[in-house]
Amino acid sequence: xxxxxxxxxxxxxxxxxxxxxxxxxxxxxxxxxxxxxxxxxxxxxxxxxxxxxxxxxxxxxxxxxxxxxxxxxxxxxxxxxxxxxxxxxxxxxxxxxxxxxxxxxxxxxxxxxxxxxxxxxxxxxxxxxxxxxxxxxxxxxxxxxxxxxxxxxxxxxxxxxxxxxxxxxxxxxxxxxxxxxxxxxxxxxxxxxxxxxxxxxxxxxxxxxxxxxxxxxxxxxxxxxxxxxxxxxxxxxxxxxxxxxxxxxxxxxxxxxxxxxxxxxxxxxxxxxxxxxxxxxxxxxxxxxxxxxxxxxxxxxxxxxxxxxxxxxxxxxxxxxxxxxxxxxxxxxxxxxxxxxxxxxxxxxxxxxxxxxxxxxxxxxxxxxxx
Length: 371
Prior knowledge:
The strands form four sheets. The chain has a seven-stranded mixed beta sheet, sandwiched between helices. Strands 3-4-5 form a three-stranded parallel beta sheet, sandwiched between helices. A two-stranded parallel sheet has the order 1-2. It has helices at 12-31, 51-63, 76-87, 127-139, 153-165, 184-192, 204-216, 231-239, 244-250, 270-281, 290-312, 317-325, and strands at 2-5, 43-46, 70-71, 101-104, 120-122, 144-150, 169-176, 197-201, 223-225, 254-258, 328-329, 342-343, 355-360, 363-367. 41% of the residues lie in helices and 16% in strands.
């Protein structure tokens, strides 16, 4: 198997956590006998969250390393840039010989169409759906919102969905470029608009920058974000060497969407405790967080696909894709109750339901789908 993930640069924290967790989970599976009498080897290339480099690394994994399938490639722009190659590696116009990309870390609506991109199965809610769920929820709470988002497909699509659903007034709108070192000028502009809530769609490192910049201005806005990261991730970055508890003390009131269990809210959950044991015993990251939980769920789903391909007697690339499309419901103890994750041959949108998490002064609340 192969993956392209950011292992260096400002966007590397989630990539490193996902990489280490996948390696830990596959090490556990290999120790228990592997899949189809084979060991799983995962080759990971550092794409530095750069679309051109992501394409270059994808080519290497297919043309030099001869991987069976990709797993967990991260980033909407990266995956979209890779998509033409993944669909047709030899460039002959025939998409019957593509390479499966199982459970990509992308919510890009551009690649959720199974008829246009049959070899790609995303494993995040599409960004616009994420934005709409958050917009509907915030409509019942606030009348004035300011927006800060990443100037790429992630940010633009999420904000498009948010604007469709939010019925209040948008009093300011700011963007930042992927990899931007700081966002202090954008935060100053947001503060000047006097919003009731700041809505953010981007990466956790920049969310932490937003909090620090606001604190420097003597401002503690209520924050809201989508499901691509959790409040716990931001707290871990804010806490730094002092630890996540210090980060939570610095965290302003925070509202986010979610589809996976949370390392803090679900710390005593049996599946979460087993996740912690996996990380400890097989060399994963030192503490659970959204990328590690997502990484294990992706690992579990990937193993389920490989087992189904083996059962069918077809461990080719095409056989792996067919096995993935036949999974139906993806099962994991780390997925929130009420969130159904389903995959079919004509529907690659695995995640279409989201819960709402709220954090204020250390108190956590969660509203599950349909409740």
